From TrEMBL:
A single GO molecular function term of this UniProt record: DNA binding
Gene3D superfamilies: Intergrase catalytic core
Keyword field: DNA recombination
SUPFAM superfamilies found in the cross-reference section: DNA breaking-rejoining enzymes
Keyword Cell membrane belongs to the record: no
Biological processes per GO annotation: DNA integration; DNA recombination
UniProt xrefs under InterPro entries: DNA_brk_join_enz, Integrase-like_cat_sf
Domain of life: Bacteria
Keyword Repeat: no
Protein name as catalogued: Tyrosine-type recombinase/integrase
């Protein structure tokens, strides 16, 4: 899946720091119960992700609603605008 090189580097760093990169079936977005550095097995639930995004949007002073699909659409739009992907790749991503 194509992504911005900064995102790729950040994900690789996260996988290394958390140790999840060495676990082939590890959850990419585990829950964090409140203790710094402690991650648990169950993945984030959809409603938890939405609440987290909404908090970040409000903290940034953005007044419009945003969610996971907002980031997906923005990422695809910017990738097309910067000639990083073509329409065939976008169609594959959207599946």
């Amino acid at each position: 899946m194509p992504c911005h090189h900064n995102l790729e580097a950040s994900l690789e760093r996260d996988l290394e720091v958390t140790g999840l990169g060495s676990q082939p079936k590890a959850v990419l977005f585990p829950t964090a119960p409140g203790k710094p550095g402690e991650l648990t097995e169950p993945p984030l639930q959809q409603n938890e992700v939405y609440r987290m995004i909404r908090r970040r949007v409000l903290d940034a002073g953005i007044g419009t609603a945003a969610g996971c699909h907002t980031f997906r659409a923005t990422g695809i739009t910017e990738s097309l605008r910067n000639d990083q992907v073509n329409l065939d790749e976008v169609e594959r991503i959207m599946i």
